[in-house]
Amino acid sequence: MSGRVLGPGRYGLAALAEGDVIETARREVTVEMIDEFAALTGDHFEIHMDAAAARSHGFADRVAHGLLVLSLIDGLKNQAPAQFEAIASLGWDWGFAAPVLAGDSIAATITVTELRTTSAGTRGIITLGFEVTNQRGETVQRGVNRLMIYT
């Protein structure tokens, strides 16, 4: 599926088509972010907190929490010039393909893969496919988000 790259603006269901794409900006994942996420969530697993421990597990540096990366991607989606007329997220189906290390930068390509109107007819449900890449173009995460939007 390939479609148009959505330009700046807000998009309801009627303005979207399967295959439409949003490209997010890129954001660096810092050691400070990893530390703050660990403090907030209580997830202090050693690969996140200590470079030597991460190396002992086969990683080149500290590894960002997968959910930190997902959260950053959702934020990048919500800061993109092209926006969905969103009401609420209905869920995520997500996978971690490769580690995101401290100092990596991430961005996402978001593709509209499915559109439908709710039974009431005043709202829509869209399915978004995400491909998250690092600065080398390697896929590090991918998944699906279902989003309720205005028609």
UniProtKB/TrEMBL annotation:
<feature type="domain" description="MaoC-like">
    <location>
        <begin position="20"/>
        <end position="118"/>
    </location>
</feature>
<dbReference type="InterPro" id="IPR002539">
    <property type="entry name" value="MaoC-like_dom"/>
</dbReference>
<dbReference type="Pfam" id="PF01575">
    <property type="entry name" value="MaoC_dehydratas"/>
</dbReference>
<dbReference type="InterPro" id="IPR052342">
    <property type="entry name" value="MCH/BMMD"/>
</dbReference>
<protein>
    <submittedName>
        <fullName>Acyl dehydratase</fullName>
    </submittedName>
</protein>
<dbReference type="InterPro" id="IPR029069">
    <property type="entry name" value="HotDog_dom_sf"/>
</dbReference>
